[in-house]
C-alpha cells in the first residue's frame, strides 16, 4: 500500500518528495529480491531500487497493520489502480511518527510532517477526536499527550488561517 509523500500527492498539491513509502507485510518484502536493503529494524526497512530510495513500513507494527486493513482503498493513481492509504490513514501514520522525530531533533522532518497533517486536516475536515482515539491505542501515554498538543496547535493554525482569509 502506498503511503507517505507520494500518497499525499493524491490528495493535495504542492507536496515534494524524493523517496517512495510503502506499507507491506514481511512476507511481501521477501518477494522483492530486487530491493537492496540498506537498514532494517522491527518496524521499518530502508532499501534502494536502483537510484530510488524506498522506505517500507512493516505490518508487524500494530498501527501499520491497522492502517493496512482499515485505512486503505484501491484508487486510481498515475493511471493505475493501487492500494493507497486514506487521508485518515496518512494522518495516523504522520501523528505516530512525530514524537520520535521530536526526540531525534529532526526539525526539518517535523515541519514537513506537521505541514502534511495541517494541510490534510484543512482540506478534508477530519474528525480529529476519532483520530486521537485511534492513535491512543498505539502510543505511550507521554507520546499521546504530545500528539494531542500537536493536533491542538495545528487546529489553532487552521482556525487562524480560516479567520484571516475571510
Secondary structure layout plus pairing:
Layout: E1 2-3, H1 5-11, E2 19-24, H2 26-30, E3 36-40, E4 44-49, E5 52-58, H3 62-70, E6 72-77, E7 80-85, H4 87-104, H5 107-124, H6 128-136, H7 141-164
Parallel strand pairs: 2-5
Antiparallel strand pairs: 1-2, 3-4, 4-5, 6-7
Terminal Cα span: 38 Å
DSSP strand content:
15-25%
The residue fraction in helices comes out at 40-55%
Strand order of the largest sheet: 1-2-5-4-3
Query: Mind describing the biggest β-sheet?
Result: 5 strands, mixed
Per the principal axes of the C-alpha atoms, what is the gross shape? Answer: globular
Question: How many helices in DSSP terms?
Answer: 7
Quick overview:
54% of the residues lie in helices and 23% in strands. With 166 residues, it is an alpha+beta fold. The protein has one domain: Beta Polymerase, domain 2 (2-Layer Sandwich).
Describe this structure in words.
The protein is 54% helix and 23% strand. The protein is built from seven helices and seven strands, in the order E-H-E-H-E-E-E-H-E-E-H-H-H-H. It has a five-stranded mixed beta sheet with strand order 1-2-5-4-3. Strand 4 and strand 5 form a beta hairpin. Helix 5 crosses helix 7 and helix 6 runs antiparallel to helix 7. The termini are far apart. The relative contact order is 0.13. The model has no long low-confidence stretch (mean pLDDT 91).
Offer a few descriptive terms.
alpha+beta, 166 residues, five-stranded mixed sheet, globular, Beta Polymerase, domain 2, 7 helices
Amino acid at each position: 500500500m502506498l503511503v507517505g509523500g507520494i500518497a499525499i500527492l493524491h490528495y493535495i498539491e504542492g507536496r515534494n518528495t524524493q523517496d517512495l513509502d510503502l506499507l507491506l507485510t514481511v512476507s511481501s518484502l521477501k518477494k522483492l529480491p530486487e530491493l537492496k536493503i540498506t537498514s532494517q529494524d522491527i518496524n521499518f526497512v530502508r532499501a534502494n531500487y536502483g537510484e530510488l530510495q524506498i522506505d517500507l513500513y512493516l505490518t508487524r507494527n500494530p498501527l501499520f497493520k491497522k492502517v493496512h486493513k482499515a485505512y486503505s482503498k484501491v484508487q486510481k493513481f498515475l493511471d493505475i489502480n493501487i492500494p493507497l492509504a486514506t487521508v485518515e490513514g496518512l494522518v495516523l501514520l504522520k501523528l505516530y511518527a512525530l514524537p520520535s522525530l521530536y526526540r531525534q531533533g529532526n526539525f526539518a522532518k517535523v515541519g514537513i510532517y506537521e505541514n502534511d497533517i495541517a494541510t490534510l486536516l484543512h482540506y478534508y475536515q477530519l474528525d480529529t477526536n476519532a483520530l486521537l482515539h485511534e492513535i491512543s491505542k498505539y502510543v505511550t501515554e507521554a507520546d499521546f499527550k504530545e500528539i494531542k498538543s500537536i493536533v491542538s496547535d495545528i487546529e489553532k493554525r487552521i482556525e487562524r488561517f480560516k479567520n484571516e482569509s475571510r
